[in-house]
Specification:
By secondary structure, the protein is mainly α. The chain contains 13 helices and 2 strands; from the N terminus they run H-H-H-E-H-H-H-H-H-H-E-H-H-H-H. The chain has a two-stranded antiparallel ribbon with strand order 1-2.
Amino acid sequence: MEDQLSLKIGGYLYLDNSVTKNGMTPLAPPDVQQQYLSSIQHLLGEGLIELITMVKKAVQEVLGPVSLKQSLSLQELEQQLTQIRQLVEEGCSSSKHKSLSWYMMPDEENTLASQACGLTENDVTTIKLLNETRDMLESPDFTTVFCTCLSRGFIRFLDNMSEFFRPPQGDSNPSSTPDRLSHVSLPLAKIIPIINGQIHSICSEIPSHFVQDLLLIDQVKEFAANVYETFSTPQKLQN
């Protein structure tokens, strides 16, 4: 998300470089850049809190009936995570819930627009940038790329979790094939702290293997290139 914001601003700055040389007014003066980029703070604050609340509800709905003593195999854990993902992602796409873009961006354009005659030229530019970004976040292309990133992240997570579902060392057949791992189960009470440990590991890794995985996805590269091209081409901005 932050990368896409930077790409949009980058496109505008590329155009500003050209128009300034010709004596024209820049599209994204410093005040607009600051106001626009500060919108990422919504995701790290109120947006994240709301998203966590939605995820908690989904986790409680799926895992609430499961006893802490109940054992789950890696495949069964994956099925539980898939159900949680479906509840969260379908909730974000349902008309009865807030759209995914709400969690990522504030309704700043509504706040600015309510000022009516008090709007400055920079405010109008910021509103335009925010509206364009929200359109991008709600586009089918972004949804596809976002779901691909989520799936890649969960694949990496389950790969890490598989290390804890290996047969005991004294097992007569220590194969680590998926079929073999499916016969190894752990109580939910033991799985929860392992998952918590994975979260701490993910957040503390430098460089982050999760982020590196995402940056290598072709769809992410193509989408980023399309965003930059769109917002660095005057003809497309005028449409």
